[in-house]
Amino acid sequence: MAEPTIVRVTHRYNLPAERVFDAWITPATAARFLFATRTGNVLHCEIDAQAGGEFLVTDRRPTADGDESFLDAQHRGTYIEIDRPSRLVFDFSVEPYAGNPTRVALDFVTLGPTICDIVLTHHLGDDETAQVMRDRTRLGWEKMLEQLDKVLNARTWGFRPIG
């Protein structure tokens, strides 16, 4: 049996851990970074944030054949552990690429009142597919964590009525 393939990614946020954690379980925020790609569009984001609850994020992305066709990828997860604001664990799969679900754990490490790290650990399994997907998976999570940083630090422009 091969050694298990594990991807570990860390990202620092200049925000409280509670705010970063909540982004992962709040559909309106999660839809802006969770599995969002540069060329895709998140069509649907549904989250039942409780142990045993599930999430589904559907994004439409162009196919790799260069044609004008699209693929709807469904990112599914079942929450194993939710310990706000320090830990989130879920079993994860992507359709139409679904194989056996893999385990993702996020540890939110508080470093101060307004600074935290996410340490994301993805256990891909011990088969050949896991080895092949290791680098692509790492890059995907790195981009997602960077996008989360942008989403949480984006300035919002509102208008205030005069008078």
Task: List the topology elements.
Blueprint: E1 5-13, H1 17-25, H2 27-30, E2 41-47, E3 54-62, E4 70-83, E5 87-95, E6 102-112, E7 115-125, H3 128-153
Antiparallel strand pairs: 1-7, 2-3, 3-4, 4-5, 5-6, 6-7
Feature tags:
3 helices; 7 strands; single chain; 163 residues; alpha+beta; seven-stranded antiparallel beta sheet
Structure description:
Helices cover 24% and strands 43% of the residues. The chain is an alpha+beta fold and 163 residues long. The protein has a 7-stranded antiparallel β-sheet with strand order 1-7-6-5-4-3-2. The N and C termini lie far apart (72 Å).
Q: From N to C, what is the helix and strand string?
A: EHHEEEEEEH
Backbone shape: globular
- Specify the biggest β-sheet: 7 strands, antiparallel
| Number of helical segments with 4 or more residues | 3
The count of strands amounts to 7
Low-confidence stretches: none
How far apart are the termini?
72 Å
Radius of gyration: 17 Å
Overall helicity: 10-25%
Provide a short characterization of the protein structure.
The chain is α+β, with helices and mostly antiparallel strands and 163 residues long.
